[in-house]
TrEMBL record:
Subcellular location, principal: membrane
Protein's recorded name: MFS transporter
Organism: Amycolatopsis rhabdoformis
Domain Major facilitator superfamily (MFS) profile: 28-442
UniProt-listed PANTHER family: CARBOXYLIC ACID TRANSPORTER PROTEIN HOMOLOG
Length: 469
């Protein structure tokens, strides 16, 4: 009687990690990158649309503040309240529904008849964006081999920055010729079209599907691994975890094992976003007050974004090869230096301003992309979307306070040079937070089976996380 061969098993994370980067990865990156691109397009376009709205409706300049803030508040709602729904409905469904919703609400903005309607619609649009982004990031990171995870996340965040650039170019062509309403029509139709594409092509998270629908999970994994043996059983990545009753992802983030790591990550997010939005909001005004031409002010602000895109091509692979914590800590240290250089450059020649703005952007904008990638490495798959969503949401507190504090400082007579020096000091604190995060998260990262291969991202050595990580 023939002996029955034992059935082969493989853990989900091991299966994903052993696959080379191929066409399936390109598809996932393209789809999630397009979601990020439309977020950047929408976020930046309002900066050009709002003044045109104020002119048509004869609104005072102060009325622009609520219009700008509405989408930021909406994003926080999406990040903090809606993104955790992915654990129940799945990343695919949440991304598709949220993309369609922010498309619908953006189109409705085109027919808004007064300030109140526009503010409400912008808030709802932001909520849709905030719900979609963490799941898009989670999908890109989950299908990425651990050795390429930071690079994948940095790549799709480059599309967010490209959306900023595209908004400037499109707004400059559309608004003078046809007014502000067509910008909302375009900004709403594109997500609706993308939602249809996502419906047909976007895969769902295997870690979400395995406990719920093994057949669908295997079908998704066969797209990633066409040669997957039908007799091979795929086990969830968390199958080796303890028998402790699972907590909600949000509770997990702030319980004793993760509390210190989560707090330090949120601090890094807040500090980075505070500097980022302060630079984006005030650099044109500061340069104008110091006598620089409008073209120099616009180009310098654009270069802070372009610098981040260029840096991402280097920082992402460095995070994968040298370790995400040490790499990001150094990025923030360099950012402190470059922002300090910008402090002294703003009173100099235009070429000096442009060069300093580019360098500052490599670490301020590039750092913002990097800290999101760090969050995907830090948290295991089960709590990753909630972890990324809440880090982005809490980080928006810094994004709101940064421009407000800079405005207060400038209004009270503080020199622009001093303001930039303080921003540099803020990045020094962010660097310290990341290095501290590397240390306090080491035990929990080493002891969480759900992401046991994360250590491979921190170091090519199988044991002994380095001090720099």
């Amino acid at each position: 009687m023939p002996t029955q061969q034992p059935r082969r098993t493989v853990r989900l994370d091991e299966l994903i990690d052993e696959r080379p980067v191929g066409g399936f990865h390109v598809l996932v990156l393209a789809l999630t990158g397009l979601v990020m691109f439309l977020d950047g397009l929408d976020t930046q376009a309002i900066s050009f649309v709002a003044p045109a709205v104020a002119k048509e409706w004869s609104l005072p300049v102060a009325a622009l503040g609520p219009i700008f803030s509405a989408s930021i508040v909406g994003l926080m709602i999406g990040y903090l309240v809606l993104s955790p729904l992915a654990n129940k409905v799945g990343h695919r469904k949440l991304v598709i529904v949220a993309t369609a919703l922010f498309g619908v609400f953006t189109v409705l903005c085109a027919v808004a008849g007064n300030e109140t309607q526009l503010i409400v619609l912008r808030l709802l649009t932001g909520a849709g964006l905030g719900a979609a982004i963490p799941s898009a990031v989670a999908l890109a990171s989950e299908f990425a081999p651990a050795r390429r995870r930071s690079t994948f996340v940095m790549f799709i965040y480059c599309w967010l920055a490209l959306g900023f650039v595209a908004a400037s170019l499109i707004s400059g062509a559309v608004i003078p010729a046809w007014g502000w309403r067509p910008m909302f029509v375009l900004g709403g139709v594109l997500p609706l079209v993308l939602a249809l594409v996502l419906l047909g092509l976007l895969p769902d998270s295997p870690s979400h599907l395995l406990p719920r629908n093994a057949a669908r999970a295997r079908a998704t994994l066969c797209r990633l691994h066409p040669g997957l043996d039908p007799q091979t059983e795929v086990l969830p990545a968390e199958s080796a975890s303890t028998a402790e009753k699972p907590r909600s992802p949000l509770v997990e983030l702030v319980r004793r094992h993760w509390l210190a790591s989560t707090a330090l990550l949120w601090l890094a997010f807040m500090l980075n976003l505070g500097v980022f939005y302060a630079v984006q909001s005030w650099l044109p005004t500061i340069l104008g007050r110091l006598g620089h031409s409008p073209s120099t002010a616009v180009l310098a602000t654009a270069l802070t974004t372009i610098g981040g895109i260029a840096a991402a091509l280097v920082i992402g692979p460095m995070m994968d090869r040298r370790g995400p914590f040490g790499t990001l800590g150094v990025v923030y240290l360099l950012g402190a230096v470059f922002v300090a250089v910008l402090a002294f450059a703003v009173t100099g020649q235009s070429w000096l301003v442009l060069g300093a703005a580019f360098l500052a952007g490599t670490c301020v904008t590039g750092g913002q992309m990097s800290v999101v990638a760090l969050a995907t490495v830090l948290y295991p798959p089960r709590i990753r979307p909630t972890g990324v969503g809440w880090a982005l949401g809490i980080g928006r507190v810094g994004g709101i306070l940064g421009p407000l504090l800079v405005g207060f400082a400038l209004g009270s007579g503080t020199a622009a040079r001093t303001v930039f020096v303080v921003m540099g000091a803020v990045l020094l604190v962010a660097s310290g937070a990341v290095f501290a995060l590397a240390r306090v998260s080491r035990p929990v990262r080493a002891g969480v089976p759900a992401d046991s291969r994360t250590a491979a991202v921190d170091s090519v050595r199988p044991v002994g996380l380095s001090a720099g990580e």
